[in-house]
């Protein structure tokens, strides 16, 4: 291959390209961090060494990047971070790393009343009734391999589920319980247009897991589950014998890749690490669709399950459904380069990353012939991100470093060579994922990189034995200066992965559109506001606004089942109310123009002050009404 990637040429081109993008940021004041970085670099700034070596082997000084976003200015990017076993999603601004919002997904969350009103309560009940989940991989929908800002999908590793978040309202609006998954780990959509949402089953179990084959692990398996994005429906599964771990999509709508660290089909650590090699599993999605179409599946738990195991007759012919590519023992992350050319698997137990040329999978008889490079990056490589300038950035969990390397140089070099490595930078400490801006799309922005460190150790004031994680922001836009560590940000346990999306690609609503809600809007008109009784069921509809609820008091009988539907009729953004009822576990958030319903039992006679928990005006404390529960005779 021709060596056309002179560092100087490329960085010049990229600076121009970045300037060309400025109009896209038109509604956002954009700090000139590029200029700041270049100026400081020219002055030979004394900022800490990055570990970048110049051609003479000398350490170069880092550029002094200004990532501050002063009060009143907005960030250039949204970052959506998973919350791990907190079960939520966190929304950061980049580069400020300010946490702007949390979006509860699998967790009940009181600030937003999530899991308290009837609709969100039922959504959690109908998807298993759990009160927590383990989110790892938040991925934003794409059209033509660019973020379209419509949906965010995320897995639940704890209970085998996938959730959808509506980015118009930044709210979870649907959850699918995947019946053939115990733990859904990897998550991604089929590119270029998010045709499917994929959940990747990590934990091998009997399928169905109904008491059969309890202690016969050779009969266990995993599935890749495919869902449609809208409506969010489960369509089919593909079964494999090994386990599946992380996943990412090719850019052409054909291949989906996952790693597998348990080709041994073991159940103990020593069994799962016994073999010298495991797999990157490549799913040929059009072939699988053909099999589903032709009825070549078994239905398990109501889901069509196509047999993608190595011995499957469907894998026999010239165009197998699933291809198994050997990679060194116990790999972890797999991610596709922005140009769609390569899938790169990180070695974890092996100090290398393996480069698979995706087009080759359609050409070669032996899928191992699609492996076109293997670069020695260091100890414990977990995940790899891209800057769109031909560089890969891989986290080294064991070495506590990020290594930057040249992808084409790695394809040209001998297998196992260290030569393609450009730079290693310390991180603090023990990184898992790292995410570069829009690196999961064809539009990698090449400026910001977030490294999600599992340990923070000495980086923050001590807070007892539970430590925060440490999310570190790097500037990667200057290849001459090298990676620059810009910011440490403590994170509540425990982010795993993130997606960084240019802010102008989203268009969130600041007030509800009542037409988007299932429940009818309740205006202040008399006929809209009523208290109705049917046996021991009481149904109440009322509006609310600054500084009162539709009724000053509501009288019910002990033992009544009470349903209150309420609309916040405010039209002004950022004026939220809530309906909180002490000692009844009632806590419903009501944003402007939002209608919610909540059902509870009035089981103790007494006076209860319904109140508003959002500080909405100077008379917020007076925004309260009495619930009078009369004793039963
Ligand atoms: Cu490496 Cu769940 Cu993507 Cu954690 S996974 S780090
Ligand atoms: Cu409404 Cu406080
Ligand atoms: Ca293994």
UniProtKB/TrEMBL annotation:
<dbReference type="GO" id="GO:0016020">
    <property type="term" value="C:membrane"/>
</dbReference>
<dbReference type="GO" id="GO:0050304">
    <property type="term" value="F:nitrous-oxide reductase activity"/>
</dbReference>
<dbReference type="InterPro" id="IPR011045">
    <property type="entry name" value="N2O_reductase_N"/>
</dbReference>
<keyword id="KW-0186">Copper</keyword>
<dbReference type="GO" id="GO:0019333">
    <property type="term" value="P:denitrification pathway"/>
</dbReference>
<keyword id="KW-0560">Oxidoreductase</keyword>
<dbReference type="InterPro" id="IPR019546">
    <property type="entry name" value="TAT_signal_bac_arc"/>
</dbReference>
<feature type="region of interest" description="Disordered">
    <location>
        <begin position="1"/>
        <end position="23"/>
    </location>
</feature>
<dbReference type="Pfam" id="PF13473">
    <property type="entry name" value="Cupredoxin_1"/>
</dbReference>
<dbReference type="GO" id="GO:0042597">
    <property type="term" value="C:periplasmic space"/>
</dbReference>
<dbReference type="InterPro" id="IPR041142">
    <property type="entry name" value="NOS_propeller_2"/>
</dbReference>
<dbReference type="Pfam" id="PF18764">
    <property type="entry name" value="nos_propeller"/>
</dbReference>
<dbReference type="InterPro" id="IPR028096">
    <property type="entry name" value="EfeO_Cupredoxin"/>
</dbReference>
<dbReference type="InterPro" id="IPR002429">
    <property type="entry name" value="CcO_II-like_C"/>
</dbReference>
<protein>
    <recommendedName>
        <fullName>Nitrous-oxide reductase</fullName>
        <ecNumber>1.7.2.4</ecNumber>
    </recommendedName>
</protein>
<dbReference type="Pfam" id="PF18793">
    <property type="entry name" value="nos_propeller_2"/>
</dbReference>
<keyword id="KW-0574">Periplasm</keyword>
<dbReference type="InterPro" id="IPR006311">
    <property type="entry name" value="TAT_signal"/>
</dbReference>
<comment type="similarity">
    <text>In the C-terminal section; belongs to the cytochrome c oxidase subunit 2 family.</text>
</comment>
<keyword id="KW-0732">Signal</keyword>
<dbReference type="InterPro" id="IPR023644">
    <property type="entry name" value="NO_Rdtase"/>
</dbReference>
<dbReference type="GO" id="GO:0004129">
    <property type="term" value="F:cytochrome-c oxidase activity"/>
</dbReference>
<dbReference type="GO" id="GO:0005507">
    <property type="term" value="F:copper ion binding"/>
</dbReference>
<dbReference type="InterPro" id="IPR051403">
    <property type="entry name" value="NosZ/Cyto_c_oxidase_sub2"/>
</dbReference>
<comment type="subunit">
    <text>Homodimer.</text>
</comment>
<dbReference type="Pfam" id="PF10518">
    <property type="entry name" value="TAT_signal"/>
</dbReference>
<dbReference type="InterPro" id="IPR041114">
    <property type="entry name" value="Nos_propeller"/>
</dbReference>
<keyword id="KW-0106">Calcium</keyword>
<keyword id="KW-0479">Metal-binding</keyword>
<feature type="domain" description="Cytochrome oxidase subunit II copper A binding">
    <location>
        <begin position="535"/>
        <end position="633"/>
    </location>
</feature>
<dbReference type="InterPro" id="IPR008972">
    <property type="entry name" value="Cupredoxin"/>
</dbReference>
<comment type="pathway">
    <text>Nitrogen metabolism; nitrate reduction (denitrification); dinitrogen from nitrate: step 4/4.</text>
</comment>
<dbReference type="InterPro" id="IPR015943">
    <property type="entry name" value="WD40/YVTN_repeat-like_dom_sf"/>
</dbReference>
<comment type="function">
    <text>Nitrous-oxide reductase is part of a bacterial respiratory system which is activated under anaerobic conditions in the presence of nitrate or nitrous oxide.</text>
</comment>
<dbReference type="GO" id="GO:0005509">
    <property type="term" value="F:calcium ion binding"/>
</dbReference>
<comment type="similarity">
    <text>Belongs to the NosZ family.</text>
</comment>
């Amino acid at each position: 291959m021709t060596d056309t990637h002179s560092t100087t040429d490329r960085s010049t081109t990229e600076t121009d390209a970045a300037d060309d993008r400025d109009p896209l940021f038109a509604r956002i004041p954009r700090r000139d961090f590029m200029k700041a970085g270049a100026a400081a670099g020219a002055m030979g700034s004394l900022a800490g060494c990055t570990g970048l070596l110049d051609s003479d082997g000398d350490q170069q000084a880092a550029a002094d990047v200004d990532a501050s976003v002063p009060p009143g200015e907005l960030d250039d990017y949204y970052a959506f971070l998973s919350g791990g076993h907190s079960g939520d999603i966190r929304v950061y601004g980049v580069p400020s790393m300010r946490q702007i919002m949390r979006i509860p997904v699998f967790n009940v969350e009181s600030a937003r009343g999530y899991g308290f009103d009837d609709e969100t309560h039922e959504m959690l009940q109908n998807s298993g009734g759990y009160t927590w989940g383990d989110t790892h991989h938040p991925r934003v929908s794409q059209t033509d391999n660019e973020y379209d800002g419509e949906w965010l999908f995320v897995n639940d590793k704890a209970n085998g589920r996938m959730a959808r978040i509506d980015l118009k309202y930044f709210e979870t609006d649907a959850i699918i319980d995947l019946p053939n998954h115990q733990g859904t780990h990897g998550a991604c959509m089929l590119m270029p247009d998010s045709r499917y949402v994929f959940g990747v089953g990590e934990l091998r179990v009997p399928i169905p897991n109904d008491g059969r084959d309890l202690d016969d692990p050779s009969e266990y398996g995993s599935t890749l589950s495919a869902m449609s994005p809208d409506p969010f429906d489960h369509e089919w599964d593909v079964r494999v014998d090994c386990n599946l771990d992380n996943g990412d999509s090719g850019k052409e709508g054909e291949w989906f890749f996952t790693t597998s660290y348990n080709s041994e089909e073991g159940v103990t650590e020593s069994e799962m690490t016994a073999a010298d090699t495991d797999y990157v599993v490549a799913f040929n999605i059009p072939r699988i669709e053909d099999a589903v179409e032709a009825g070549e599946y078994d239905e398990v738990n109501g889901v069509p399950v196509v047999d993608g195991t190595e011995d499957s007759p469907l894998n026999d012919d010239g165009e197998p459904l699933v291809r198994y590519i050997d990679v060194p023992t116990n790999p972890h992350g797999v991610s596709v380069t922005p140009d769609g050319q390569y899938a790169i698997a990180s070695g974890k137990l092996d100090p290398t990353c393996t480069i698979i040329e995706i087009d080759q999978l359609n050409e070669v008889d032996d899928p191992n012939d699609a492996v076109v490079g293997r670069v020695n990056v260091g100890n414990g490589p977990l995940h790899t991100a891209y800057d769109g300038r031909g560089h890969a950035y891989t986290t080294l969990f064991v070495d506590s470093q990020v290594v930057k390397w040249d992808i084409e140089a790695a394809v040209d070099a001998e297998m196992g060579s260290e030569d393609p490595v450009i730079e290693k930078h310390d991180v603090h400490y023990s990184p898992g994922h790292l995410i570069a801006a829009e690196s999961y799309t064809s539009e990698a922005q090449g400026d910001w990189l977030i490294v999600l460190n599992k340990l923070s150790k000495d980086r923050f004031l001590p807070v007892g034995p539970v430590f925060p994680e440490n999310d570190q922001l790097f500037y990667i836009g200057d290849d001459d200066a090298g990676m620059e560590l810009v910011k440490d940000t403590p994170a509540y346990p425990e982010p795993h992965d993130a997606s960084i999306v240019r802010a102008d690609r989203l268009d969130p609503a600041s007030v509800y559109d009542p037409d988007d809600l299932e429940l009818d809007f309740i205006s202040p008109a008399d006929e809209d506001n009523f208290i109705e009784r049917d046996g021991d069921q009481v149904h109440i509809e009322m509006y609310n606004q600054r500084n009162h609820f539709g009724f000053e008091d509501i009288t019910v009988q002990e033992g009544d089942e009470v349903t209150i539907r309420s609309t916040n009729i405010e039209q002004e953004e950022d004026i939220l109310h809530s309906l909180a009822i002490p000692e009844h576990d009632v806590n419903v958030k009501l944003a402007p123009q939002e209608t919610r319903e909540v059902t509870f039992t009035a089981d103790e006679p007494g006076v209860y002050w319904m109140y508003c928990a959002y500080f909405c005006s100077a008379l917020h404390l007076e925004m309260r009404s009495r619930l009078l529960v009369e004793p039963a005779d």
